[in-house]
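Bench log, entry 3. Co-assembly request; chain sequences pasted below exactly as received.
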Amino acid sequence: MTKLKILENKTITDVPYFKATGIHSGVKRKRKDLCIIYSEKEAVAAAAFTQNKFAAAPVVVSKDHIQSNNTQAIVINSGNANACTGDEGIDNAYSMAKTTADCLGLSSKEVLVASTGIIGLPLPMAIINAGIKNACTQISSTGGNCAAEAIMTTDTFTKKITVEFDLDGKKILLSGIAKGSGMIHPNMATMLSFIVSNVNISKDMLSIALKESIDDSYNMISVDGDTSTNDMVIGMANKTANNTIIDSKDDNYIKFKKALDFLNKELAKLIAKDGEGATKLIEVSLNNAKTLKDAKLCAKSVISSSLVKSAFFGEDANWGRIVCSLGYSNAEFSPEKIDVSFQNKIGNIQLFKDGKEVSFDEELAKNILSEEHINIIIDLKDGEHCATAWGCDLSFDYVKINASYRS
Amino acid sequence: MTKLKILENKTITDVPYFKATGIHSGVKRKRKDLCIIYSEKEAVAAAAFTQNKFAAAPVVVSKDHIQSNNTQAIVINSGNANACTGDEGIDNAYSMAKTTADCLGLSSKEVLVASTGIIGLPLPMAIINAGIKNACTQISSTGGNCAAEAIMTTDTFTKKITVEFDLDGKKILLSGIAKGSGMIHPNMATMLSFIVSNVNISKDMLSIALKESIDDSYNMISVDGDTSTNDMVIGMANKTANNTIIDSKDDNYIKFKKALDFLNKELAKLIAKDGEGATKLIEVSLNNAKTLKDAKLCAKSVISSSLVKSAFFGEDANWGRIVCSLGYSNAEFSPEKIDVSFQNKIGNIQLFKDGKEVSFDEELAKNILSEEHINIIIDLKDGEHCATAWGCDLSFDYVKINASYRS
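Structure output for the full assembly:
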């Protein structure tokens, strides 16, 4: 892999010519709820949207605006999802783009829109439009952290990462902020991720890279199996690094793609770790499947099992539930070949070998499971394809957060 | 529908020539753990088995023995699933059938085997075989309730139903016992159901009827989305009613099938109601889908959503999560046409109409949701196909039961 440097204290506004802000507009009671990300220079953008048939209004509008060859801003509100709000909701999402565009001297089509929060309520447009106008006066090259805060719902920490690498001797910065599975009554988990870069890349290649990268990162995490109406990942590149433009799958594309994969996986892991009520990050490494599809089916089946997730909350070395969830994954494999181990900084312990239990040190298992990060390693010994999935345990707090009236 | 009489206090041993027992053999500490169901007369049997690739040893053996044209007994142990136990497990399951056959004067092939309980531990065969011998001396025409008890794991009540109807002026009895999603560390939920009848039916037609009936009953319930290694439904018919044999899809087949459907749906609902930690039975009535597949996909997506289930535990009229789960169901429908209502003995309340929220009486919604049985009625207004699915809420106790070390 090309030398990739993680820049610990940097964020999206450390990428050249990107500015941002996050403010409190009044949709939420106290916390920041409105974010603008802006590139001073022209930029290409690519996006992936929820597959949910009830796509929220901002998804509809961003699907329209992403067609533009220039995308210079994203406006995001939290606290209200603008979902299931009918034609009025669509009008309001277009209005958010237009107000932002007017303030920043752009055309509406150059602005993308995202929302997260309560579903089914009309957006309070007086508050939102005033908020956007206010935010546009505050965007700055130090506003990245405020931006990361303003997109949160019940997230317990901001999610951000910045990496640096070289292309043609030019310094490329790639930085992302994300929000995870937060719940505001009456709503569902929503995942949003915004990635910016100074890389010089064509819109088509950015789109291909983003799509491929999402399949191995955000699409491999599960908090509770529910796909929101508002999920969205957007990538923007303003080309100011002046590297030779990436317009085919050349060496530079591969280097960029590796950096993008790393960044998206790290953001995906942060989202999994901050799943509602989560006490542990669980990583499933599925090795040696016959096909990539089988590898992904197996890894996602394990990470999505409520029984597996409850067992991890209980710190219970329950290989039975793990192999059971493999068994109903619809993947092809040979049950009699399977090995299962747990691993983390405490150690490594094999629980299951060649399709049967092996006796193991219960004390060591307990110590491994008491940690916050646990890797489940599954070897199908059936081929050469691997996949990794991330998730969290299922705790009392998940139920508490999501059963608001009784809690 | 043919006149179907529910016989409140009857059970499987009230069906002519069926005997049964349930005893404590010693696999569990105190509670009954071994059950035998026996037909004194020759009988045909049909069965459906788990689709889990890690099918337990009793599944393997019963799949073999169901080939026999005569099936006169089922031996079931609870407390140990005999799953992931390798060749030794298979030998042990065959041995359970042989011991039962020897005691009852049958051949091994005439006995089916089922297990539920801890996964991955060898069956204690000395205890099991002694238990079977003991049980065979105790089978009787009053042992049905003990049998229903002996197949339980963490079920909180026995599940049984008996119905009566006429075919050719002959009295047909159809009776079933079942167990639901119980958890014994370290194990997963297992569903078992055993149905017996005096109906005269060919093995082929019994098999067709059972298969079709399962698709609309057991396959439409969800407690936590996990499919066990040991799931099994068995139907046995000893033909002693002397009706004209059902050997084609004639009128009598249709009458029998209706009774079987009713019985299986009632058992399925009891299983859903007794899901681990459940406080409510939720029924999803999905109406007017374009295809049956779409109807089932929608109904199962709603009943399987952790967010919907948590909202019901919280008695929260959260239509947003319901339409969201429809949205990711992979079914075809038009979001702008959808209606959603809640209904039960308290009343009926519409929350969502033509794809949008409608204002509703919060007090009435609260009262409806405070009941133990709630029907979610969804109208897609897109065709003529309907499906019903059953499930339960997701409570603190689900997590508690399944996170054994911390609870």
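Chain B touches chain A through 62 residues (CB under 8 Å). Residues 182-188 of chain B have pLDDT under 50 and may be disordered.
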